[in-house]
Structures
1.
Amino acid sequence: MEKMVLRIGGMSCSACSSGLEKYLNKQNGIISASVNLVMASATIEYDGSILSYGSISDFISEAGFECIGEYDKTEDNDTSLSKKQFAIFSVFAVFVLFLSMGHMLGVRIPYVSSNATVFYAASFVLSVPFLYYGYDILKSGVKNAIHITPNMDSLVTLGVFSAFLYSVAVSLLFVFGKTDTPPDVYFESVAAVIYFVKLGKLIDKKSKAKTKKAISALVQITPAFAFIKTEHGEKRVSIDEITENDILACHPGEKIAADGEIVIGSAHVDEAFITGESKPSLKKPGDMVLAGSINTNGYIEIRAKKVGKNSTVSEIVRLVLESSSTKPPIARAADKICLFFVPTVAIIAILTFIIQLASGLGLSSSVHGFITVLVVACPCSLGLATPLATVISEGELAADGILIKKSEILENAQKLNTVIFDKTGTLTYGKMSIAHSFTNTDDTNELMKKACSIEQKSSHPIAYAFKDYASKNCISMQDVSDFTVLEGYGIAASYKGVPLHMVNGKYLLENNIKNPFSKEETTLSSKGESIVYFIENGHVLALFGISDVIKEDAPKEITALNDAGIETIMLTGDNEKTANHVANELGIDTVIAGVMPKDKVDTVIRLRNSGRILAMVGDGINDAAALASADISISMHGATDIAMDCADVIFTRPTINGISKLIDTSKKTMRIIKENLFLAFLYNSFMIPIAAGVLIPFGITINPMIAAFAMILSSISVSLNSLRLTRRRKQK
């Protein structure tokens, strides 16, 4: 199975996207297709042995749309042209409206207003250019009707052609003397309807562009070129020419071109775009760096590991695009309604024409009603109600480092009532740190140099606490000798002939060494910290409490979840004493400690079976199965590949505060979607009956021009309501 994300041209409403989606899913070789109206994209899973890009592109063309290519850095380049055309036709529209409605303002055009033949000819001449201007709408409408996937363009096309052909016919009948009374014509309606629909599309395009900002920013993170090291020196190449294992030269101030490993040099690298950490971190040989991060102050050479579509940035873009192309259940329900909406409106328009004609209102009034019903109906607002809000929210979450693989997660997150956390690497940093230290020497700096120098030679997990301390505090290592591992106790070495030890309390007891920190040891041990003593020449000079440090934002996040009425559970393989201490520090409701990976899965399944809707948050291989068993699975920053593969949500930043943000965004998004659907249904329920003539007995009718303008207002109201999601984030 292969997958590609394609950019689609020619879609104007949800009937387009749902019709294309339905057509593609019928084709042999396509496993699944999901079409996104807002992003103008299609995510397609297909059998590569049967289909190719060309054949899928042909399917899209057959359905009446255009395959622009795979999603990349290309943006729509016709915006300026569209604006120029719109400006020109705005002038034409003023002439048309002035010609047809000037008499309402008491203004008459000499000779034209008083001569029906000249008036018809002038109206015809001014309306024809609008048929050219709306060619894309008319073409889309005809194609979609032919493929039995009628959309909003189909309604507009039917209304425009009906108005134009009727107007031409009755004008000719009058000019050639077949009728005595000048008939009503709708040339101005042809022009106005196309003009207002194009205005709506221009506004809609601008609104949709705002939703793509987060993705566009991600796409443009990586540089356009890089410098490859060759035997002849540095060679400048495009980003697409980089291959795995190439050595890239990166100078101060430049962006890193590919994910890779530093082989020469060191530099402080700004990775804020993906980690959210504003302070650049020091990267040395052996450290991994990400494409798009900025080398702030040093020369480094990097061995490329992940290039092009395999880079971290490209993977993020792919995840966001695929997520925006999936549909939550509420969107699928709206799509089903849209599929029936267009044919239903067409039937209502035909019935309106028949009923009004049969009731004696005359051919002109009946045509007027027929056209107005077609024009006033707005499946566009109904179709935008869900995808626009969904894409905006997913873009906002992506900008905050929260990637959602499927849009249905955005709907389901609001239902969560339980969140299960792994401990190590999720609530804590997953690496040992010096949590507490006590010394009885005046020269603490010298003591730390010696302690870190001994631990530098050790591979024990506790040693990483001292290595990390040395790195952060720029401690220069001392030359120690006679390094020895004391099984069950710690390590020993000598410095300038003086014996040094880094050992546990058991070593002190068995060797009758006086312990000046016995009280402190008791306190730290009760907190679940590992105890390390520094001994120099037989005297205890320091006590270190080593622990896996709780993340700074963890307490705030747990409090936010508890305040929201969501139960928090810690599920860990660590010992109960340490787990309870961390839980007490954070305010977690329930602790389940000392569990094996299989026990984690059983616990998640048991809790789900009890009726809870839960999310599982983890980062390791041992969390993968439990993640797959949860209603919503969340993978932390730096998680193993298998954990990320199993996850529905991936955090790209080393924090956990995205959980409450995800739930809060889910609630706001679903509220906005429901408001959008209400607005769309209210508009259509109100306007279609009026257009059909139910208020004619009261002297109330609407003109097709007004109907077209009202249709646009419906779409604009839905778009503006959806954009409230963006403003909320800016206000935080």
2.
Amino acid sequence: MKKFFGVLRYVKGYWRYGILNISFNLLSVIFSTFSIVMVFPFLQMLFSEDNTKMEMLVRGGKNHLGFSTTEILDTIDYYLAKQTLDYGKMPVLIWICVFVVVTFFLKNLTRYMAMYFLAPIRNGVVRDIRNKIFNKSLDLSLSFYSEERKGDLMSLMTTDVNEIEWSIMSSLEMIFREPVNIVVFLGLMIALSIKLTIVSFVLLPLVGILIGRIGKSLKKNSTKGKEKMGIILSIMEETLGGLRIIKGFNAEKKISDRFKDENNQYTAIATKVFRKVDLASPLSEFLGVSVFVVILYIGGLMVLEEKSMAGAIFITYLALFSQLLPPAKSFTQAYYSVQKGLASAERIDKILNADVTIKDAVNPKSITKFEKEIEYRNVSFAYREGEIGWVLNKVNLKIEKGKTIALVGQSGSGKTTLADMLPRFYDATEGEILIDGIAIKEARIKDVRSLMGIVTQESILFNDTVFNNIAFGIENVTEAQVIEAAKIANAHEFISEMQDGYQTNIGDRGNKMSGGQRQRISIARAVLKNPPILILDEATSALDTESERLVQDALYKLMKNRTSLVIAHRLSTIQHADEIIVMQKGEIIERGTHTTLLAANNTYKKLYDLQAFV
């Protein structure tokens, strides 16, 4: 149950509701107890055939109220006998019935109030877990996601969090109420008969052990089910994102068969889980009734043969024991649900406990502006420590303020990784990167990234309005500023032609626009941010000739008077760069201007000739 109490650490912000919940639960137990205790005097009165015993009881008097079970029952006996002699049995019977109805009403009212104050805890805790997972997913470095399936993470944030809500949070009421019920009823049972209660103590733990063994296997199967759901969501995400290729290659059947296979496996696991969960109620009820029968037999001997217990007390004991079974049964169901939910809790902990490798230093330095240069000093990088081969190997590079540096080379040569390390999407395994002499690892991450604007090959847009996409991440932006940025990015004209102009929703990933339009929106976003440093990652490689011309013109405007790091496959777009860096297998093999590199007649010249030939 360690993991369960780990989940409950989120409850600490809701102690006010928790105290009210516990208080009303205690009141519910008290009223429930009173309603059961009234069984005893009712039976005494019902089976009493003459008034002699009652007259003797009243003559004996009752001078004080004790707190032991015997004294309480004697007190009730005394006042019932007195009222019966004074008013008769029927008025007293009516009074008892009214008392039972009132106590049951109060019992259910207080139980509802306990659940009423539990609702904010249930939903609040789940909300906090969702927020924590989402915030942690933003804090984790990009290298973490290169090892994970997106579908698995989507499953974690939806299915697993919902599982905690329904399996663990919904069980809080039972877990915090039923033990109190069990303790109170057991206390009364001990007071009525120690012998019968000892028998209960011997038999009930055996029942608990059997249920516990089934619960362990339930948790294991539930974990497998969550992992399989992650695979299913991954297939769905890939399929929806790749429908054009799937249809184009007539691969519908292949994808469908793959999905069916994974879905069948998930169904088989889920069936096992449901069967074991559904076993909880009938199994606990059968075992409880078996224990009840044993108690019934032993108690019958005590009443009929040993004469060591009065019949009314035994029936009261049975009434208490019968009330012990529902909370025990509910507690068993809660245990099964918790075991199922703990599988999700463990998967969530994998994210929450994952190391945040990209984080601020203990006392980070502040960088408010860029004045001199960026320097890569002996930078080496591998995605995993100890990995054979380096993505980057001892790279040394200086980028002076106002200069445009272009990175070229074959795919996999390390260009994008080199650029991604500047805003600290990845940290150098060896060496360091400096801005104006300050190592970016020692600077505040927010400050470093505020100096940069990024335009990537794939335009990253959000399902929102054009205005909000351009103003993304920037506060207090006016419409005039957004329009000016769009004009510089050659985007104002087509935006104005949209149905709602800048307030038009662009759909999922901007699918209502062409590739060139999406890219110009991305450029407008970078223009509005007005950063001193630009990172352009193959921003025109996926566009047609006309769109490329418009986007390239927008990029030239964007790069003006800025320091730019440009990744390019089309060498024609970077001929005017101040320096061109040629990379191969994570190393810089050539550097210089377009003219000097052509004259050197080496790798760059070969790449240029290949593109010129094409």
